[in-house]
């Protein structure tokens, strides 16, 4: 982050330059000297700021989908928000989570590799308590999951991964599938310790219980689709081609739509007084002659020019001109 000087610091700097305490030439030399920035190869920066912004947008949608899903499943107040998206080594992520937690290890075809959805014990046990009829309070002591509790956890988080599929749909159509549920981070080694991961941290509140849900995405897993996380992919619309079957169904549905077609014989302007005094048998003079051309409108748009006539003793019109877009109506006097 760029440091911004306060007004007092600016005044002090100008005063030092004026009094000779600081030499302007020395400052210029320091500025022109080559700056060296330290780089930690153990914390390789694989994700650009553009990638992290895209991941933030994707998982803000994921957080909204999760909020809706868990609110419906738990039937209580649930609020989930993205608080941070960062990149760090996988080993650092493992050391930062509790020794006893809920780790949902899953795959997301067509991506190759495994991802992890880590749920803080307070959040996971509050969900479990709510699903089993409790008030949704976090336990005072965290213990290992029973077989029944494990099955319940696997079921609710397996369906929660459908929200991840929906959030990523604009980038790639993934098929998340829960592979295993672990409680000890030491037994989970999905990539090498130095592999860079994107860590999406979601603050979660269930009733009065708060905690974190962390989504760990190894760089090696999403490396094939990294170009799709650029701004160009988000803001440049690509032409979508329809399958022949889809095009045929669309044409069939449109062809069955009913439209109102009106052939105008003419128009006239009369006063309100004349209108109120109209009687049966009165004649209204039109602006257009009866044998002149008729305007044919589809809805309220002029589409055709036609001539009046009869077919088998019934009134009819014969279309002899198609009106192009932007052509104004022309009345024959």
UniProtKB/TrEMBL annotation:
Keywords noted in UniProt: Bacterial flagellum, Cell membrane, Cell projection, Chemotaxis, Cilium, Flagellar rotation, Flagellum, Membrane
Cellular component per GO, a single term: bacterial-type flagellum basal body
UniProt keyword Membrane, yes or no: yes
Pfam family, one: FliMN_C
Residue spans crossing the bilayer: none
Location in the cell: Bacterial flagellum basal body; Cell membrane
InterPro entries named in the record: CheC-like_sf, Flag_FliM, FliN-like_C, SpoA-like_sf
SUPFAM superfamilies on file: CheC-like, Surface presentation of antigens (SPOA)
Membrane topology: Peripheral membrane protein
Domain Flagellar motor switch protein FliN-like C-terminal: 252-323
One example GO MF annotation: cytoskeletal motor activity
Keyword Cell membrane: yes
GO biological process: bacterial-type flagellum-dependent swarming motility; positive chemotaxis
Cited PANTHER family: FLAGELLAR MOTOR SWITCH PROTEIN FLIM, YOP PROTEINS TRANSLOCATION PROTEIN Q
Family the entry assigns: Belongs to the FliM family.
Record-given protein name: Flagellar motor switch protein FliM
Organism classification: Bacteria, Bacillati, Bacillota, Bacilli, Bacillales
